[in-house]
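User: My advisor, Dr. K., asked me to get a structural model of this assembly before our group meeting. I'm new to this, so sorry if the format is off. These are the inputs:
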Amino acid sequence: MVPTVLRPASAAAAPASSQVRERHVVAFRGMLLGRLFDEKFASLYRGGKIHGGVFLGRGQEALSVSVGLSLRRGDVFAPLIRDMAGRLAFGEPLLDAARTYLGSPLGPMRARDGNVHRGRPREGLIPMISHLGAMISVVNGALMARRLQGKAGFVGATCIGDGATSTGAFHEALNQAAVERLPVVVVVANNQYAYSTPNSRQFACRSLVDKAVGYGVTGHTLDGTDLSACLEGVGRAVDQARSGNGPQLIVARLLRLCGHGEHDDSSYIDPKLRNSPLGADCLKVAEDRLLEQGWARPEEVDQWRAECVARIEEAIATVQRESPPDPFQEDWSALATRHLIEQRGTL
Amino acid sequence: MSITYLEAIRAAQAKALAEDPRVYIYGQDVGAFGGAFKATKNLAQEFPGRVLDAPISEDAMVGSAVGAAIEGLRPIIEMQFADFSTVGFNQIINQAATLHWRTQVPCPVVVRLPCGGTSGSGPFHSQTMEAIYAHYPGLVVLTPATVEDAYSMLLEAVAIDDPVIFCEHKYLYYHLKAEGLPTEALPVGKARIARPGRDLTLVAYSAMVHEALEVAQEFAGEGTEIEVVDLRSVKPLDTDTVMASVARTGRLLCVGEAFPWGGVTAEVIARVATEGFDLLDAPPQRLNAKDTPVPYHPDLWAIHRPTARSIAAAARSVLRS
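Assistant: The format is fine. Below is the predicted structure of the whole assembly, which you can bring to the meeting.
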């Protein structure tokens, strides 16, 4: 994969403050790209141009982009449904999202799977299945395999929501990661609702991060609305995992600023939460900070926005010119082993 | 030197570990302890770091195998009992079985299921799971009935680029012996004529092959020649061999140890009825376990599953009609 979000150069000799500025600018531009790309798909959805659902990361971009930027080429990443920003920061091409949402057979999933179910497993980007918590152990296995092969210095990360922490898969996988002492970072975006179910009906512990001590992994909490906190906290957890300190569980507080999918009006979200600090829009917070710090001028932000829109429009226009899949060109077989494919039963 | 079905499984795993550095084994108690049935006895010592004890987490065991397969390894996952694979069911059917179709990245994972009834094991240590896994696209489901097949098919399973559900029958572990390990074998996907005959095709797989052979022997004394077809793999299913046998005999009985609703026997009968109806001289029949959980008491268990006695009764019924 080629870099999709401009990453900071190694800038070894640059002063620290310049590095901080650069990192925030790169992250903000990644958030902006993710937000605008999501909004484009929402618009296409409302126009009836997308088959199936559209799922946005609105309100979760600061956390998501921090995960993508904290990982390196060669690491493993299994994002979830609200990780457009993180995926792009990790290096997923814009065309992959466009082709998967619009059902182009030229995409990585070849129109066989859609929307957020996309990835390039051989390049470390593992496509999610819909069963929550199920990707953690897959990342564990990739890390175990690398260790068995004598490789070192890599990290695996995966994102989940508050709802997924209630699954058996989450429990089994976090325990497995701890037993094997794997360099895995599990990032929980506690966006307060699993579809419509609030935290109060999801778990009864004081904080989800309390689960970390039970598994014997390191826990971190973050303000998910604050880009600086996300960059610092996620970066620290990834560094700890990479330097051999075992699994890390990050719990970020934030609010989903949209429905579960674009079919959902999110009317169940408590207005008090919307009006609380939790309901702050991380993109706005980050932009205000850039301007306050003098790290960017308003015209620059406008220019970045225009650049994002141009890239997005180009990707969508490219894919809209591509042909849909041809059912008669499909081999309708799920096996990789060609000689084991049964030739009958297809009447 | 004789070797048991269980020893053949151990030997196949030792050979796979020795010949392919991408192979590792992961499962509960498989390490120093050598597995609940000793199918991995001494392998942890012989192959340090490649035979790993897992926590009691079937979901995570299979999920991690998928991740390792993505990285190019060829994991063998041992379920302690086939019954417990239901806890890993989601990862098997939704993660492992869909990976290649979705991404073009193969998923060479072998999941070993010690399956089938043994006396006194009860509802949760006796199940046969082949039907439910065969239902899902993207899986290969193997049901070896002989020591030779247990060995050669497990080796082939490790080489296959798809998830393989390897159903090894616990009843055969110690009962079944062969003189040695095979040097050649039928490939996966080919059924075997376990005994030729002209009067009735008796299709079976796994431990039921031996019950079927007993019936064929009994009937031979009465001048009736039963042809026993051992499916070997239930997915893919070698319909051609079954159909050719039915063309010779005109009569079909299909036997399986699984529960009766749907499943392998229903699939065989459906294929023969739809593609070879004109070959049949009598309605085909199927015999399965009863439609209850597997009972604990030996007297109940012996009636719950098909046996030579109940298969013989069903065979007489097909031959009379």
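One thing worth pointing out at the meeting: Residues 192-320 of chain B form a domain with the Rossmann fold fold (CATH 3.40.50.920).

User: Perfect, thanks a lot.
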